[in-house]
Design brief:
This protein is mostly helical. The chain contains ten helices and no strands.
Length: 206
Amino acid sequence: MYSLTPLPPRPTQLSCSRMRSRAPARKLSTNTQLYMSAQRALMRRAFSIHEMKQHLERRAEDKDLVPPVIARLRELNYLNDEKFAFDYAAQHAKLRRQGRFRITRELRQRGVPDRYIDDALAKVFADTDESALLRIRVERRLARLRGAPLDQKKTASIYRSLLGAGFSSELIRAELKRAAAKRNTESPESSEIEIPDTDQADPLDE
């Protein structure tokens, strides 16, 4: 009788995807290829000029090919840091309820010049009450406690999370005091909120 040699196991979908993911991306060698790569990237999300430059340099066979592509994208207004800063600030303030410090920090990380950041924040917060955004965050955090005592440790945790969300320490302390007064009025038996007595600087203070 003939003995049958077992066939090797067929590669699973997961292993195939891992093999594909290990393959290095093909470098692009022409301006046209880089331009098409930029267009595909812009269909997914908006880019700052700095972000797009990094995106294309990672894909370019020769980095000297990138500046003409960036110039063409700017000429067609596909890249515009002023518009990018405003749209980003508006979305993150109104939809994500982030404060101006967080937005400033993230736009700087994306290489947006400060003049555009300052102008965007001035326009966005001219008709968006930053205190109201902060108030919503505070009320949601307090609602999660469901009547549990709010001790200094929990208050400090809320304080730190609000700093991380980009609000100034002055605004946070004022809003926590307002929340404390409201909490004591609605539930006299509730323990008083202890506002952290900290000299911690605001996120962009240096």
